[in-house]
Amino acid sequence: MNDLTMQAQRLAVVLEEDPDAAATLSLQLRTLGMESRYCRHGQHLIGEVMARRPQLVIMALEFGQQDGISMLRRLAECGYRGRVLLLSGVERKIVRIAERLGQALGLQMLASLDKPMRLIELRECLEALAPVLPPGDVPAPMPPCRIEELDRAFARQEITLHYQPQFELASGRLSGVEALVRWAHPEAGLLVPGRFLPLLTPDQNRHLTRRVLQLALEDAAGWRRAGLSLSLSVNVTADDLMCPELLSLVSEARCSAGDAPVVLEITETAAMEDELLGSEVAARLHLGGLEVSVDDFGVGFSSLARLQLLPISELKVDRSFVSRLLEDAQDAAIVEAVALLGRRLGIRVVAEGVEDLACLASLERYGCTHVQGFGLARPMPAADIMALAGTQSPMRASRAASGASPGSTP
């Protein structure tokens, strides 16, 4: 790696109209081991990006006659491949629009920070920078994944599962798991879905769904033989739900798993856009003993009338609302409204993305029934689930420390 690349990886370009705010940010960045260059105008920013290819661009959403949203388009147009961090004192809804636009444009967006910035928040945000590719390079999957390589992954049984534990909020007990697919690549190690799912052909995607269901139900059968009964959630696409063989596939596998409760998770956008979901196949899935969950609820634009008609057993509140529950009154209001909706419709409400256990009391007060997230337990191999079930859950430990009732024993 040459000296220019090394310098670029330690450089942040800052676009901020307020010189005092820029000076404070520059000092904070230097404390965290990064150099910075200050820009007051958008054209200056683009010039710095083109010339230096910095690792990070930090910019306010409002400055002068320009705005940060238009600058996102200009960054994408000039092929910037580093990370982008937004600073804002504007309404949170505007920030979310900007974040989603940046992602849609192919920019690598970090979680935004409110003004004034705190050093600890900036440090946590910058932790996402390592490891990174040289900012001047176009990111590519590592290693390059080809169709034949993915086919070999199936043949060699390199597709494996980790499980995200889910806890019952009232008791703190381990109540279920969500199956998360991984590729145990012989060279690159364990790859997460984002590294290979976009490359799958329709046939490979159907093959993957069958493989995930098979592995997950085998693991569920093993837990059940050991005396642990858990609900099992598996992510599927709208195409998967419309596949006639899905019902027979799961039904056959469930027989060996002792009729473990199976929840098929579909994203809110797919669930609300696919008219067939409310017809024959969805009804047969329900009659066959399978449950359907709407994942990432609150992110899309749902038809509440259609939601009332679909055979849905569970709503999962998107982590973007849960993560800022204690800081943002609007996020808290959305979580509370979804929980109330679920309660009125007789649907379980799962809060995803719990990282701060301090939010558990609010989630329970709102009416959420289950929780999951890194603050409770990270995804783990099947063998570790039994050990987790036999220990005191983080929820119960937190309640014990606060003097609250520990709930029932798992």
TrEMBL record:
GO molecular function: cyclic-guanylate-specific phosphodiesterase activity
Alphabetical keyword list: Hydrolase
EC number annotated for this UniProt entry: 3.1.4.52
Organism: Halomonas rhizosphaerae
Pfam families for this protein: EAL, Response_reg
UniProt-listed CDD domains: EAL (cd01948)
Species classification: Bacteria, Pseudomonadati, Pseudomonadota, Gammaproteobacteria, Oceanospirillales
Presence of the UniProt keyword Nucleotide-binding in the record: no
SUPFAM superfamilies xrefs: CheY-like, EAL domain-like
PANTHER family assigned: CYCLIC DI-GMP PHOSPHODIESTERASE PDED-RELATED, CYCLIC DI-GMP PHOSPHODIESTERASE PDEF
Domain of life, per lineage: Bacteria
InterPro entries: CheY-like_superfamily, Cyclic-di-GMP_PDE-like, EAL_dom, EAL_sf, Sig_transdc_resp-reg_receiver
PROSITE patterns: EAL (PS50883), RESPONSE_REGULATORY (PS50110)
Domain EAL, first and last residues per copy: 143-393
Full protein name: EAL domain-containing response regulator
Domain named Response regulatory: residues: 11-130
